[in-house]
Amino acid sequence: MDPIEALERVSYLSDRGRLDSRKSEAFLKAAKVLRDLPADELQQRLTNGTVTFLPGIGPSTAAVIQQAAAGKVPDRIVKLEQETVVPLGAGAAIREALRGDCHTHSLASDGGASIATMAAAARALGHEYLVVTDHSPRLTVARGLTRDRLLAQLDEIAALNEAAATDGGTPFRILTGVEVDINLDGSLDGDDDVLARLDVVVASVHSKLTMDRSAMTRRMIAAIRNPHTDILGHCTGRKLDVSTDGTLVKVRRPQSNFDADAVFAACAEAQTAVEINSRPERQDPPDDLLDIAVDAGCLFSIDTDSHAPGQLEFLNYGADKAAAHRIAPERIVTTWTIEKLLEWTHRH
Ligand SMILES: [Zn+2]
For ligand 1, a single-atom ion, which residues have Cβ within 5 Å? Predict the structure, then answer.
């Protein structure tokens, strides 16, 4: 096993298992240190025992490097491969039917990996596509993309797609997108001409989650009916503290308050899909609201809202959630072929 790949695998598995994110970052940083070394230096340092003299390499990263360089699968990886498997229960059939992920972030906003790295991980998982949905300009805390940065990202994605088309691997495509903020008045935080060019638009509320029920309902319905909107992201905005085994510890950020009957009726009418956000600390919509959306006849999109490659495996959680609510696979847009998906996102 290549030492750099080994370090990156530890980071991936830590993210998949929702372990301490600082540890995951430390392994990723160590991988970068090795990548930046002149040829032969690592081998020399392994021979004379000075690997830990490198900045950012401590005893635990060094152990992984040494074992990998010796041709072994590092003990840490063996352990993590077993302990961080994302559980999958009744949703196995739905998970099998999923073809991709419509909500992911890259380094361009608040994600932890490049688009190329995210795409490679998605492809390794058997996805047919990955939609990159970095944040829109107003979400400055998450380095929301300005118009120019988003346009530059479209060029980056086109180049990556061109390379993927000719590399002899399984067919795979990166789709363009944005997670656009829903402004207080229900308008979207993006330019019409750019939103119209994107393959998929996820619209989410990120500000003033505590606004009163009728104002929030109006705000959400305006965004749901906006012709650019394809998916309503994490509809309540709640954040939970969940232990590693999945039990709720406490509600960290309460859910917003809106008229769910009206909101999901609007989704069904506009054919805007309701996101089933798979992140364990979101689990959005909550179960009672998800039932209302099911009864309203909504479409759904099972997304991971990944900020790191290992989190792409969170789809298992969303698939189990959909199965628990008896949602037919045909109503889940992420089971559709790319052609059907794009026909739907271009329906207006
Ligand atoms: Zn979001």
Answer: 204
